[in-house]
Amino acid sequence: MEFLSYLISGISLGSVYAIIALGYTMVYGIAKMLNFAHGDVIMIGGYVSFCAMFYLGLPSIVAVLMAVVVCTVLGIV
Description:
Elements: H1 2-31, H2 38-54, H3 60-76
Helix pairs in contact: 2-3
Membrane topology: Multi-pass membrane protein
InterPro entries: ABC_transp_permease, BCAA_transport_permease
Pfam family, one: BPD_transp_2
């Protein structure tokens, strides 16, 4: 049972790394330059979801959707 827990954790973390790498690859492929702002946007999304859950008392799904909206607006601006 412990192996299954490690397997799921490893696959989840690997998926996050793959999504971040895909973002860097797409930006580099199109613009031919690296944009290191991904970390800032990810950090702001985490902070928004944290504040929405603990200060506003929202459920985690709503907090994540709120973070997605905030990060999308940040990316457009």
